[in-house]
Amino acid sequence: MESPVLSNQTFNKIRRLVKEEFGLNLTEQKKSLVLARLQKLLTQNSFNDFDSYLGFLLKDKTGQALSDFINKMTTNHTYFNRESKHFDFLRKFVFPQWLPVIKSYNPTKKIRIWSAGCASGEEPYQLAMELIDFFGYSQLKEKVAVLATDISTEALMQARQGIYSRENVFNLPPAYVPKFFLPKGANQYVVKPMLKDFILFKRLNLIRTTFPFKNRFHVIICRNVMIYFDQPTKDQLLEKFYQFLEPGGYLLIGHSESLMQRDKLFKYVQPSIYQKALKHEGN
Known about the structure:
By secondary structure, the chain is of the alpha/beta class. It has twelve helices and ten strands.
């Protein structure tokens, strides 16, 4: 049986669907990637061509077909200690600012961090490791909350399991491995339960009109996500990041990214690190 052909017309329909539902900007150069990633879904659902599969996607009311679709379309490649300068910055400049809150007996004072686009969980788990290593586990109880979100249900399932390869775990500082992991078989490690005490994993589409948050965050980390958005979508997301950052809060993005905001919502601190600007503070 011949492999199904993805016509330009159908590819453009898929591009519109991905843009409207998830904000992702698929260029013409991504056609071969889309073809490769969706062929397995066509086979699993017994479709002979892309048009039939697209019709199925559009008619499905459960949302499961669209969820399976975006799981295949998104890239969730990450690893521990990726862009490690971010963690160095947090330890050196940000964590010390939080000491009064961590030591406070006021239950209403809490540090909140959002890992937006957490993929398979390495980023939020390392955040928990850095926090525990700096402040101590007992100091953090009821004082710190890490929200980790992603659009991919497959990635979130991996993140919740917290099982990683030996090679991945060994990217971390050597002392972290016995402190925060348990061996699982010959070549895998699983995160210790104490790391999960501070992290809530949730599915979230970053292009939704509003975010379901009651409180602001002290740090938002969104690394290598906005590179898939066009400029208007990126601008809308940055407005929402600004809205949900505490005054003086930090936004960390990927090292290959930069903010070119005309209205200066964020103040440049150093490459890929920005701070909420005072302008529009009343908004």
